Amino acid sequence: MFVSAILDPGSPDTAKALAWILTRYEFVKVQRACWEHAAFTEKKLNDLKKDIDRVTDYYDCVRLYQFPVNGNLAITEMQKKKWRRSILRPV
Fold first, then answer.
1. 9 and 35 in contact (C-beta within 8 Å)?
2. Beta strands in the chain (DSSP E)
3. Residue 76 has pLDDT above 90, yes or no
4. What integer pLDDT is reported at residue 42 of this predicted model?
5. Residue 20: helix, strand or coil by DSSP?
6. In angstroms, what CA-CA distances link 44 with 3, 11, 25, 47, 49?
């Protein structure tokens, strides 16, 4: 699946840690705060979320756009150290 990660870190140290994690998962930086990976698995996504949890704090925000997830677009957001997932279905 295609995964795009949008980062809004609360500190420069967190920004460096997140960049290192995304590089380790072979994401490519396409804009200042946007990273993409074209062939990601669900297992790797769960591992990525755990690694992101380890380096972030309450003030950091990370949003993951995933397509396809059962033919739909999924948006997973970590804000205030809580993960939330929204599934967008076609009309």
1. no
2. 2-8, 28-31, 34-37, 61-69, 72-79, 82-88
3. yes
4. 92
5. helix
6. 11, 25, 8, 5, 9
